[in-house]
Write a structure and sequence with these properties.
Layout: H1 15-27, E1 32-35, H2 38-45, E2 57-61, E3 66-70, E4 72-74, H3 80-92
Antiparallel strand pairs: 1-4, 2-3
Length: 94
Amino acid sequence: MSDEPVRQNKLTFEDQVIKKIAGLATGEVQGILSMSGGFMSGFADRFRSTEDITKGIDAEIGEHQVALDLRVIVEYGKSIPDIFNIIKREFSHL
């Protein structure tokens, strides 16, 4: 037997990386006008030269899954349940 320690490799992702991926994927969905980040985010946007792609997205990273909370502004007349299903389908491919 060897006295060498057993090493376990583990792949992890930072919350910001997941939020950026979610922001990019959500930006491709027809009917979503923008993401809503609330008052403080809107205030901070006034001082930025570019839009924060993670605005309106919260991510909770677990061992085997990710939970995302998205706050979106939907185009008038679009079906919110349809857009929700499109988003779920888009994220299932990630």
